[in-house]
Design brief:
alpha/beta, Quinone Oxidoreductase, Chain A, domain 1, six-stranded parallel sheet
Length: 342
């Protein structure tokens, strides 16, 4: 089979499309024929060399995997050959304290798919049966690939971490990106008023086309001032931030009393300075959120099937064109998600 191997990270990374043997299966493993694999900013960070910790040498990237079960190990009972599945984001033990509490994404011995173990930038991938989730047959493979990340990731962050309530106001930064454009939809589906921030003028119209958010174009005027004007100087209940340190102060200035800022990305690798008084006087909460559990993936599938969330895919690429896809992602020239189709 063909697999795209990261041979040397860097601003212009070296990758090689190699012919490799099909993955070996253990008794509890399934072999998935990859139909589509989303290209996440996590993959961009690994390719650039910004994210190195725990990355397998010459890793096959890709954790947003959808496909068909081609073969199962002898002890597999939950899926069968021919089933349509998507990958969870982590290989987990199912037995440690975190797994027992329903936080398998942060399993104490877990490894990230496409990070610590090879992922879906390949024609085939082997995964434990616990790390795949069966999905309805009717969904397009490229749409299914986005169920765990970004849709499930957004759902977990908003519902479980931010504790979003219907009627609250959510500010989504990087709203034209792969995570942001789906967070806008998830927040709206959960009953929130959504303010969508973008720095890209060309992304304003497609965001307005979603018809569920008020779009804020960040420019010379700090967008926190626009947010305050739109909320009668109250601020927002939740900031869903996909960008990180570069806009941290604007996010904090946008928060209402008892506001919650959820951090899901760090694009520049920079640092943010904090005046603790700004947090204290707001009684604010700042928390990080990554990943999704199997329950979020299942709920994401239900939301997509019901038409509450529409997977947004800007372009599809072959494995051989992954570097072109990387450059577009790195330079923020895409709206929504890019998908590789082996």
């Amino acid at each position: 089979m063909h697999a795209l191997v990261l041979t040397e990270p860097g601003e212009e990374p070296s990758v090689a499309l190699k012919e490799v043997g099909s993955p070996a299966l253990g008794p509890h493993d399934v072999l998935v024929e990859v139909a589509a694999c989303g290209f996440c900013y996590h993959d961009v960070a690994v390719m650039r060399g910004v994210l190195r910790r725990g990355v397998k040498p010459e890793v096959v990237l890709g954790h947003e995997i959808s496909g068909r079960v081609a073969e199962t190990g002898s002890a597999v009972t939950t899926v069968a050959a021919g089933d349509t599945v998507v990958a969870a984001l982590t290989i987990f033990c199912g037995e440690c304290s975190r797994c027992r509490q329903g936080s398998e994404y942060r399993c104490l011995s877990g490894k990230g798919v496409g990070h610590g173990v090879d992922g879906g930038f390949a024609q085939m991938v082997a995964l434990p049966e616990t790390s795949v989730v069966a999905v309805p047959q009717g969904l397009r493979p490229e749409d299914s690939a986005l169920l765990a990340c970004p849709i499930g990731v957004a759902l977990r962050a908003l519902e479980d971490v931010a504790r979003l309530k219907p009627g609250e106001t959510v500010l989504v930064t990087g709203a034209g990106g792969g995570l942001g454009v789906h967070a806008v939809q998830v927040a709206s589906a959960l009953g929130a008023r959504v303010l969508a921030v973008t720095t890209s003028p060309q992304k304003v119209e497609p965001l307005e086309g979603l018809a569920i958010a008020e779009v804020v174009l960040a420019g010379e005027l700090d967008y926190s001032e626009i947010v305050m004007a739109l909320t009668e100087d109250n601020g927002v209940d939740v900031v869903f931030d996909t960008v990180g340190s570069a806009i941290f102060r604007s996010n904090l200035a946008s928060l209402a009393q008892f506001g919650r800022m959820v951090l899901l990305g760090e694009i520049t690798g920079g640092r943010a300075s904090i005046n603790p008084a700004e947090i204290l006087f707001r009684d604010a909460t700042i928390v990080g959120s990554t990943g999704a559990e199997r329950r979020h993936i299942r709920k994401a599938a239900e939301m997509v099937a019901a038409g509450l969330v529409r997977p947004v895919i800007s372009r599809k690429f072959a494995l051989a064109d992954a570097v072109e896809a990387y450059r577009l992602m790195r330079d923020r020239q895409t709206f929504g998600r890019v998908v590789l189709v082996p």
